[in-house]
C-alpha cells in the first residue's frame, strides 16, 4: 500500500506540473506566429537499418527512427518550481509539433505506442522521436551487378511554409545505428539541408545512404561455378586425346548449357526487369557462347577424325597406295589435334581474360562517390558526410 500511495502521488504531481506548464498555451499557434522568429528544427536519424532488400523493385525496407529537436519559449520553466525536475514529459497531442512529410519511399507504417510523449527541457527545448518502417526507393546500376551500388534517399519536407518561417537542419546523432544487412553494407551517409540562400524555398532535409553489395555469395555460388563449368566443357571437348577415350561433345554441351541456364536464372531473380545487361549476366552469356562454340568445333573436328579412319579400302590397292592413304589419314588426324589444341588454348585465354575484366568492375564500385553528381548540391548545405564525399566536393 505504501508503494501504491507513492506511485499515485507521483502521478498526481506530474499531472499538476503538466497542467501548470500548459496554462495559457495554445497548441494551434506556432512559435513563429507569436514572435515572428524563424523556427529551427533539428532532424537526425539515430536508427537506419535494413530489414529486407527487394532487388527487382529497387526498394529497400528499412527501420527508421527520426529525432526532432526545437525550441518553444512558451514551455520554459523553472526546475525549482517543478520539483527540481530536469525534464518534463507531455503527450504529443498537447503541444505544437513541426509537421513534415517523408518522401522517397513507396510505403511506410508509423509505430504508435501508448507512451507517445515529448520531452521538454527547462529552456524550452523539445525532443520528439518517431519510428517508421518504410520501403525506401533506391537508385542502382544493374550493369555492374553484383559490384553495384544502392543509392537511397529519405527526404523530410514541409510544403506548407517557407524558409522564413521554418528551417530544417540535419544533424548526425552521436549514437546512431546505421547498418545494412547480410546482403548490403553501408559505406556512405550524407545529410543535406535546404540552404537559406533563397527564403522562398520550403524547409527540407535529405538523408542519403550508399550501400555496397557483399559479393562473396555471388562469387562462390555463380561466378566460380560458371568459370569451372566452362573450363571443364572446353577441356572435355577440345583437349586432344585418343579417339577411343574421346567424349561426346553434344552430351557435355547439354550439361553445361543446363548448369549455366540455372545460374542465369538466379541472377535474373535478383535484378530489376530492365533492358540493361548486368556484368554477371553478360559473363554467364559469354560462358554459354564459349560452350556452344566448343560443341560446334568439337563436333566438326570429331567428324573429320572419325571420317578419316572409316574410309573404305579401295579395290586393287597396292602397298604403295595403302601407305600414301595411311600417311594422308595420319596427317588429317594430326591437323585435327593441332587445331583442337589451338582452339582449347584460345577459348581458355578468352575465358580467363573475361573473368579478369569482370573482376575489374569491383574497382568502379570502390571509386564511386554518392554526392559529386547531384545537381542540387549548390542549393543545399551539407551538415554531415563521409570523408570520401567531402573530398569529392573539394571541402578537404
From TrEMBL:
An annotated GO cellular component: membrane
Membrane as UniProt keyword: yes
Annotated localization: Membrane
Stored Pfam families: Neur_chan_LBD
SUPFAM superfamilies reported in the protein's UniProt record: Neurotransmitter-gated ion-channel transmembrane pore (SSF90112), Nicotinic receptor ligand binding domain-like (SSF63712)
Parts of the chain that traverse the membrane: 216-238, 250-268, 280-305, 335-358
Keywords, alphabetical: Membrane, Transmembrane, Transmembrane helix
RNA-binding listed as a keyword: no
Domain Neurotransmitter-gated ion-channel ligand-binding: 20-214
Topological category with respect to the lipid bilayer: Multi-pass membrane protein
A GO molecular-function descriptor: transmembrane signaling receptor activity
PANTHER family, A to Z: NEUROTRANSMITTER GATED ION CHANNEL (PTHR18945)
Protein name: Neurotransmitter-gated ion-channel ligand-binding domain-containing protein
Organism in which the protein naturally occurs: Mesorhabditis belari
Amino acid at each position: 500500500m505504501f508503494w501504491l500511495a507513492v506511485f499515485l502521488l507521483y502521478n498526481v504531481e506530474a499531472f499538476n506540473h503538466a497542467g501548470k506548464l500548459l496554462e495559457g498555451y495554445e497548441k494551434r499557434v506556432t512559435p513563429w506566429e507569436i514572435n515572428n522568429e524563424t523556427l529551427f528544427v533539428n532532424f537526425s536519424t539515430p536508427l537506419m537499418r535494413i530489414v529486407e532488400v527487394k532487388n527487382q523493385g529497387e526498394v529497400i525496407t528499412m527501420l527508421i527512427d527520426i529525432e526532432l529537436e526545437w525550441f518553444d519559449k512558451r514551455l520554459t520553466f523553472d526546475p525549482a518550481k517543478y520539483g527540481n525536475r530536469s525534464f518534463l514529459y507531455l503527450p504529443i497531442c498537447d503541444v505544437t509539433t513541426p509537421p513534415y512529410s517523408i518522401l522517397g519511399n513507396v510505403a511506410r507504417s508509423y509505430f504508435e505506442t501508448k507512451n507517445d510523449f515529448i520531452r521538454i527541457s527547462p529552456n524550452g527545448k523539445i525532443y520528439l522521436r518517431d519510428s517508421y518502417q518504410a520501403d525506401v526507393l533506391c537508385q542502382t546500376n544493374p550493369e555492374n551487378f553484383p559490384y553495384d551500388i544502392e543509392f537511397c534517399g529519405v527526404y523530410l519536407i514541409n510544403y506548407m511554409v517557407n524558409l522564413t518561417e521554418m528551417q530544417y537542419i540535419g544533424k548526425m546523432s552521436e549514437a546512431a545505428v546505421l547498418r545494412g544487412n547480410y546482403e548490403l553494407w553501408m559505406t556512405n551517409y550524407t545529410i543535406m539541408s535546404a540552404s537559406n540562400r533563397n527564403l522562398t524555398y520550403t524547409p527540407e532535409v535529405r538523408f542519403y545512404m550508399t550501400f555496397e553489395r557483399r559479393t562473396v555469395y555471388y562469387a562462390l555460388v555463380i561466378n566460380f561455378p560458371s568459370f569451372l563449368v566452362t573450363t571443364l566443357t572446353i577441356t572435355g571437348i577440345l583437349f586432344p586425346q585418343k579417339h577411343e577415350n574421346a567424349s561426346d561433345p553434344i552430351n557435355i554441351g547439354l550439361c553445361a548449357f543446363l548448369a549455366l541456364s540455372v545460374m542465369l536464372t538466379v541472377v535474373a531473380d535478383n535484378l530489376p526487369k530492365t533492358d540493361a545487361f548486368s556484368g554477371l549476366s553478360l559473363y554467364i552469356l559469354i560462358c554459354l557462347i564459349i560452350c556452344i562454340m566448343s560443341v560446334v568445333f568439337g563436333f566438326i573436328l570429331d567428324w573429320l577424325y572419325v571420317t578419316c579412319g572409316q574410309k573404305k579400302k579401295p579395290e586393287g590397292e597396292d602397298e604403295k597406295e595403302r601407305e600414301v592413304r595411311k600417311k594422308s589419314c595420319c596427317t588429317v588426324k594430326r591437323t585435327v589435334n593441332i587445331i583442337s589444341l589451338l582452339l582449347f588454348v584460345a577459348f581458355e585465354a578468352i575465358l580467363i581474360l573475361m573473368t579478369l575484366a569482370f573482376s575489374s568492375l569491383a574497382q568502379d564500385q570502390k571509386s564511386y562517390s554518392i554526392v559529386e553528381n547531384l545537381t542540387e548540391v549548390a542549393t543545399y548545405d551539407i551538415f554531415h558526410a563521409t570523408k570520401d564525399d567531402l573530398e569529392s566536393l573539394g571541402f578537404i
